[in-house]
Write a structure and sequence with these properties.
- It is a single chain.
- The protein has 426 residues and is mostly helical.
- The protein has a single domain, classed as Sodium:dicarboxylate symporter (Proton glutamate symport protein, Orthogonal Bundle).
- It has 18 helices and no strands.
- It has helices spanning 2-6, 10-27, 32-68, 71-103, 120-141, 146-152, 155-171, 177-199, 201-216, 221-249, 254-271, 274-287, 292-305, 308-324, 331-347, 354-363, 374-405, 411-425.
- α3 packs antiparallel against α8 and α5 (120-141) packs across α15 (331-347).
Length: 426
């Protein structure tokens, strides 16, 4: 029996944890003791991940920028990355609006028959975030105290500091080598710790899914299942068609990439946390053939600026609520909605429950009452899993594309790595 379990890959273990979590959730439906225990285990797992994310970003990004060596190259890579993010996010929002108009998910809902979930925690966050807007976000990127930014988990401020720290390290030449060597060692240590933490990920996944099912029950799905189905179908369409096309334009196959990062996608999906997949994902993409400097820059930046899954969900959810309340939106109003979503989704990344907060800030502009959101708050966690998975795929794809465009993607290394993965499976 022992030899059999030895062959179970991490992906399968997480998948079993996922299935077990659903079963436990059904068994302990509304059992407050079991919910608290599972919540505790799930929180400990997410905390373990968050513990290692920032040291990895600081060490990888500083070394990556130092090895880029100059501001000119950084500017070019940064410009390409942000342009790519903007294009893909806009396509994702537009696709959500088109599918929403074609399928009319909100027309089948009796809004008065549904029982809402409390969303007060998001409303205050949305108000604060709305006041900040784009300018506030930009001002917030520059840290006054880097240690405070690290303790608050403010990823954008940490990236900002790391970029300058990396450029400074490169600028002092030979003396900076000590810093680079030290941070390289830190990176190796953190990846080692990541491997240890990943061994308990199936337990963390099981607990997190168990809590969701135990709190909501499967009954919450029935009236909203059509909406959930459409959101997932749209996300799959986006991955296969639009991401597939982007990959093809840059001369590689999306299925190869999905094969390489499948464990990270399953982990992100089942924990509904992009951070859970970040350390392993960076390691994978480097092994897949993308240079360390590109991986270190694109992935952390993508966590704030490239949330394709969230963009699809926000546009679909906004239309869903508009239709449920029988509000008619003209083409012009929908284009306005697209622009509002593009702006608000930039300003609120990094806010807890960001996708939900963006929706709160957006739907009021099209006349949907705040209470409308309580109806989809119940299924938000289920959709959050899907959109997190799509976000991870989107960032991985962006990394390979930017690597290709900078001629820093090693095709030979990529082929060798895929062969290794396949032989390890067999």
């Amino acid at each position: 029996m022992k030899t059999r379990t030895h062959h179970l890959t991490l992906g399968w273990q997480i998948f079993i944890g996922l299935a077990l979590g659903i079963v436990l959730g059904i068994i302990f439906y509304h059992n407050s003791i079991a919910i608290n225990v599972m919540q505790g285990i799930g929180t400990m797992f997410i905390n373990l991940i968050q513990m290692i994310v920032l040291p990895i970003i600081v060490s990888c990004l500083t070394v990556g920028i130092a090895s880029m060596g100059n501001i000119k190259k950084l500017g070019r890579v940064g410009g390409k990355t942000l342009l790519y993010f903007e294009v893909m996010t806009t396509i994702a929002i537009a696709l959500g609006l088109i599918i929403g108009n074609l399928t009319h998910p909100g027309s089948f809902i009796n809004i008065h028959a549904l029982h809402g979930t409390d969303v007060s925690q998001y409303i205050s966050t949305a108000k604060v975030s709305q006041h900040h807007g784009i300018l506030g976000t930009l001002m917030g990127i520059i840290p006054t105290n880097i240690f405070q930014s690290l303790s608050n988990g403010n990823i954008m401020s940490v990236i900002f500091f790391s970029v300058f720290f990396g450029l400074g390290t490169a600028a002092i030449g030979e003396k900076g080598k000590v810093v680079v060597d030290f941070l390289n060692a830190v990176t190796q240590v953190m990846f080692k710790v990541t491997n240890w933490i990943m061994k308990v990920s199936p337990i963390g996944v099981c607990a997190l899914i168990g809590v969701t099912v135990a709190q909501l029950g499967l009954s919450v799905l029935a009236p909203l299942s059509y909406f959930v189905l459409i959101v997932y179908a749209t996300m799959i369409l986006f991955i296969i068609v639009f991401m597939g096309l982007a990959a093809k334009i840059f001369g590689f196959n999306i299925w190869r990439l999905l094969y390489v990062i499948k464990n990270e996608v399953i982990l992100a999906f089942s924990t509904a946390s992009s951070e859970a997949a970040l350390p392993k994902n960076m390691d994978r993409l480097h092994k897949f053939g993308v240079s360390q400097s590109i991986v270190s820059f694109v992935i952390p930046t993508g966590y704030t600026f490239n949330l394709d899954g969230s963009a699809i969900y926000q546009s679909l959810a906004a239309l869903f609520l508009v239709q449920a309340y029988n509000i008619h939106l003209s083409i012009g109003q929908q284009i306005t909605l697209l622009v509002v979503l593009m702006i608000t989704s930039r300003g609120m990344a990094g806010v807890p429950g960001a996708s939900f907060v963006v929706l709160l800030a957006t739907i009021s502009s099209v006349g949907v009452p705040m209470t409308g959101l309580t109806f989809i708050a119940g299924i938000d966690r289920l959709i959050d899993m899907g959109r997190t998975g799509v976000n991870v795929i989107g960032n991985s794809l962006a990394t390979v594309i930017i690597g290709q465009s900078e001629h820093e993607f090693n095709q030979k290394q990529s082929d060798t790595y895929i062969k290794q993965l396949k032989s390890a499976h067999h």
